């Protein structure tokens, strides 16, 4: 059990704090590259699609606080692991839940909002026409998530 906890949260330091790699769990450092490497694209979407490139450009530029909000918005988890069996065993190995993140198509374009299926760690992403629209809609989605009146 200790190995499972340590793989998700890291081992305790001698001073009693937790440190997974270089990150402190209480103030987790979200690594967008790890999430990107552990993302699959549903039918009809490719990593090279313009709106997907917009998405990753925006995600890469987010603050740590906004990345935390994105994780909460996408899978309803406060923290997610940043280790996975595929790192040691290759891409065919099983992923540690909630991975892989999935990006699925959504109907509509600029007028539509980003939706999620949190139990599946799936983001339903409209084909926004620009990175500016992607940024606006993504920030709107992740910031409304913390609004108690948003449902």
Rough outline: globular
* Element-by-element helix/strand order: HEEHEHHHEEEH
What is the strand content?
5-15%
Structural class: alpha/beta
> What is the makeup of the main sheet?
4 strands, mixed
Task: Please compute the radius of gyration using only Cα atoms.
Answer: 16 Å
Distance between the termini: 36 Å
Kindly state the percentage of residues in helix. 25-40%
What is the number of helical segments per DSSP (H or I, 4+ residues)?
6
Number of extended strands: 6
The average pLDDT score comes to 78
Largest sheet: spatial strand order: 3-4-6-5
Outline the low-pLDDT stretches. 1-27
Description:
The protein is of the alpha/beta class. 38% of the residues lie in helices and 13% in strands. It has six helices and six strands. It has helices spanning 2-9, 32-37, 50-61, 64-75, 85-89, 131-144; strands at residues 11-12, 18-19, 39-41, 101-105, 115-117, 122-125. A four-stranded mixed beta sheet has the order 3-4-6-5. A two-stranded antiparallel sheet has the order 1-2. β5 (115-117) and β6 (122-125) form a beta hairpin. α3 crosses α6 (131-144) and α4 packs across α6 (131-144). It is globular and about 40 Å long. It starts with a helix and ends in a 7-residue tail after the last helix.
